[in-house]
Design brief:
Radius of gyration of chain A: 30 Å
Oligomer: homodimer
Structural class of chain A: alpha+beta
Largest sheet of chain A: 9 strands, mixed
Helix content of chain A: 25-40%
Low-confidence stretches of chain A: 199-203
Strand content of chain A: 25-35%
Largest interface: A-B, 52 and 52 residues
CATH architecture of the largest domain in chain A: 2-Layer Sandwich
Number of helices of chain A: 16
């Protein structure tokens, strides 16, 4: 593509509204333009990147045996009433009436639609398994859309729906999708992890989030340095280390700690490290008061408290209730407490001689032994994982990193097929509900997340598989016939090797072209100027490493081939699941 | 693709609601399923046909220098207020409010969106010309959606928008799109005509409808047998033949015609052919009464009457008004008439001695000479074209045929750019509005119209370029290892020649497979059975001609290659514009 035949409106500055780097760079590189809140036009350069991702997704879905179709964006309300989601989905489901006053919505997902279409005709066990997918535009009326394509209202998604006769089949279908996802993100050249997700209320252990690793990610994930374990921090189990203190501590002793209201102040006041202290947090769990003890340097994980009781609700006890139960703010502890339950984290089984609030204002205690001095209801896994904890699967060390969710695989079971009466007949002519799975990839989100992961101060650094143009040629002297001729010759050579290539043929200063090339982020740059040609050379630049090399202008094809292969090798897929 | 790995739910009968053949066949062939009124799921087989069309559209748009992007489906109301269409578009524009009560609509077309995005940044004459296109889902809330994909509410369209600095440039852009459209429909293997369309109120002669020829089409078009002239019948000009009668007729004579109320009855009563009689129709044209005279065997074209006066409104005069002006029903004529204008069709300049209503109940006149006996205000082109008229361009004979509009090219001028203030700076730094064109192809409609054009009693007959599978292999004896082995061998051979191929490997009777293959409409069928293999042959069938041939099972590849090339040659593009 010649720049002059393309439409590539680069910007020096991004509009102030752009908060994150991918949003800023996509605006500056002319990839997207905002139409209205959370709704973007995919401009030619952005559209190409989206299509590169979509093509690889499509290839791998086909390879995994899924069959492509395309479902409508406008959906009738009645289907959502059948599944129960018309009421439960909330305001993200954009609802409206058509000219005949029929209630409709814009599809944020397509479980209802696919089930309604198949239930009439997917009737025999011989038609199973079946996996149907689409790559299609969705709409979710987010209350606060932001971050460009990371959290838009209108977006492109690949969604697949598998249908099986039983759980075993559904697990095979799930595995095939999991493997396809791993291949997709590997082929795209992205660093990612498949993270076990909490799927408590839906059932089954078969739920994974696929996270692209990026410092700017919204989620924190813990990744094992040795095995393939990875988990969302909020959901990470902590393995108890076992072992107890052999010697009981000296007797409990009250100490006056006037004005000391936090663990930090306590440690300063007594000159002890925080891991010698206890922290007590109070929750209202379905109406019961629960005190939760963790080490002073740990953080209580509210989700674990809720899951421990399998509760509908678990929230922090409001301050006004604390006094009532003998928990004065800043001086609460496991003593003198009127809580319904006192839970302690597993970690507290092995230590002793704790420092904790005394349960009366202005005092703490030391030499606290939980078994001797307190009445703990139970020990459990109640805290957030930290980087010091070992991998719960293999015991190796963990790393905390941040990620962006770009895919989700889900074993649905019979949730929708039972509600919407999608039955098939088995070999014995017995009617049974279809066992389903659903599998999503946010295609437009992948492009934005890819940029969060791959950029520097100068702009985007596209992996070759996603780059709209794997190569950009910079003609530094477009007014020179000789340079332009060589640029076009090289353009044809590179196109001949099946690479997408952009030739910057604008009448602009070299500085503008260098800046724009770095901004646009083609992994390979070929720089052609009059001075280089006089010396018989053309310069090539590896956008990611910044490394430059000089290639013979006369034997460009051979030199480029070698250089390109080495660069692609650096980017080549390394499975990272 | 193996049938057993695909999802291809064929039906013996189409649901009763399907009124036209493409709708019935697309349902029966498992191409579409209805979700709600005018909204269809594109099932895998239908989705493939749509993608085949979209791919060729995309290739030819790119070849013509247009650049692809993708615009949102949800659009803000404010843009439509700027262009004035929020009020004028009517109920086909589906409007709604989002969760923050902002007014939006679903895009039925994208002039407003593209202009709003470009007006901030397409600022210099050096960026022109520019042509941007997308292939995207649109929604028009049709009052009575029907005929499946021929008149749906949700549909896929290719829409392109060109931007030029002046009319000359816009005409070049228009011509490039016109040529691209001709290449697209030619490559798709469809019989079509580019028809000059009435673009009175938009200005310029640059508007064409691209019509697929099909007996079931909604529009009648007149096509020249010699030159490339083609026109929508409603808009077809009729060329006056010139020449006048040399002899004046005998004097006017009144004849009693009791109870004769129509041209047919008059001709029977007097035993004369209808081309000796005059027909008089009455119109209310912006409040004036206009009498229109045409030959008794002709049909008045109301659009021409309206255009003659450049009127806002032209409709038939209601019967109760007819008596007031001396036009008794059945006996009205150009005599004794209180009309504001009497217009006569050009054709009436050359004849004489007409028979017409006398202007009083129960009587007609004969020997009427318009110049002598009536006061005709003007002669003009006022009637519908017929097959007897000569081509207005070259004089050769015309053919009337029916067609389905699948594309429209349009020179917009500055309608949107002026209303929405989309200006660029010319060489002299003068601000000028962008000169626009827009160009649409109904991608999903093309697939349906293709089937209207190409089918028989047994099912679809896909042109090779649109067929989801160019070849279908029928394994008649799937339980025979030998037959199955040969079928798979041939499947691999055909896939190797880059053709999309479907292998019917189901455990079904041969009759079911024959019927389904004809229904699905792959242009080539390869039929493999135990009996044939015993004789060393495999049968091939040309779906369109029905011609069968036997190929050697051993040397299948060579024989198939020859047969295939001959069949594709039959389908090969013949430019038909």
């Amino acid at each position: 593509m010649l720049w002059s035949s393309f439409y590539l409106p680069t910007l020096k500055e991004a509009p102030a509204e752009a908060e994150v780097v991918s949003h800023r760079l996509m605006l500056r590189a002319g990839m997207i333009r905002k139409l209205t809140s959370g709704v973007y036009a995919y401009m030619p350069y952005g559209n190409m990147a989206i299509n590169k991702v979509a093509d690889i997704v499509r290839q791998e879905m086909n390879r995994a045996g899924a069959v492509e179709l395309s479902l409508p964006m406008v959906q009738p309300a009645d289907l959502w009433r059948e599944s129960g989601r018309w009421v439960h989905y909330g305001k993200e489901l954009l609802r409206f009436k058509d000219r005949h006053e029929r209630e409709c919505c814009l599809g944020p997902t397509h479980e209802e639609v696919i089930v309604s279409i198949l239930r009439g005709e997917l009737r025999s066990y011989r038609q199973l398994p079946l996996n149907l997918y689409q790559i299609q535009t969705k709409f979710r009326d987010e209350i606060r859309p932001r971050f460009g394509l990371l959290r838009g209202r209108e977006f492109i998604m690949k969604d697949a729906y598998s249908f099986d006769r039983d759980d075993e089949g559904a697990e095979r279908s799930y595995k095939a999708m999991y493997d396809a996802y791993a291949r997709i993100f590997t082929r795209l050249g992205l660093r990612f992890r498949a993270v076990e997700a909490d799927s408590g209320s839906i059932g089954g252990k078969f739920s994974h989030e696929f996270m692209l690793l990026a410092n700017t990610g919204e989620d924190t994930i813990a990744v094992c340095s040795a095995c393939d374990y990875a988990t969302n921090l909020e959901r990470a189990a902590v393995t108890p280390r076992g072992g107890k203190n052999s010697l009981p501590p000296p007797p409990l002793e009250e100490i006056s700690t006037p004005g000391v209201k936090s663990i930090e102040e306590l440690c300063l006041f007594l000159d002890v490290p925080p891991d010698r202290t206890l922290k007590t947090m109070f929750f209202d769990v379905d109406g019961k008061v629960v005190a939760v003890l963790v080490r002073g340097d740990r953080v209580v994980n509210g989700i674990k408290v809720k899951n421990y009781f399998d509760a509908a609700l678990a929230e922090l006890l409001p301050p006004e209730k604390m006094a009532e139960i003998g928990a004065p703010a800043g001086f609460a502890g496991p003593l003198n407490l009127a809580a319904d339950y006192i839970l302690a984290d597993h970690e507290l089984e092995e230590g002793g001689g704790w420092i904790a609030g005394a349960g009366k204002t202005g005092f703490h205690v030391k030499n606290l032994d939980l078994e001797r001095d307190a009445r703990v209801s139970a020990y459990a896994d109640l805290r957030l994982l930290t980087a010091e904890d070992p991998c719960p699967r293999c015991g190796a060390s963990l790393e905390l990193t941040r990620g962006i969710e770009v895919g989700h695989t889900f074993k649905l079971g019979v949730k929708y097929s039972a509600a919407m009466k999608a039955y098939f007949l088995d070999e014995n002519s017995l009617e049974r509900p279809l066992v389903m799975g659903c599998y999503g990839i946010g295609v437009t989100r992948v492009v934005a997340a890819c940029i969060e992961q791959n950029h520097d101060a100068d702009g985007i650094i596209f992996p070759p598989a996603i780059a709209p143009f794997a190569v950009e040629i910079l003609n530094l002297d477009p007014k020179s016939g000789k340079v332009t001729e060589k640029a076009l010759e090289i353009y044809d050579i590179i196109r001949g090797s099946k690479l997408d290539v952009l030739l910057d043929d604008r009448e602009e200063r070299p500085g503008v072209k260098f800046k724009d090339a770095d901004l646009l982020g083609s992994p390979m740059q070929v720089i052609i100027g009059a001075r280089g040609l006089e010396r018989g050379i053309v310069e090539v630049k590896n956008r990611r490493s910044g490394a430059k090399a000089e290639l013979s202008a006369v034997n460009f094809a051979a030199g480029f081939e070698l250089w390109k292969d080495r660069l692609l090798e650096e980017w080549s897929p390394r499975p990272s699941v």
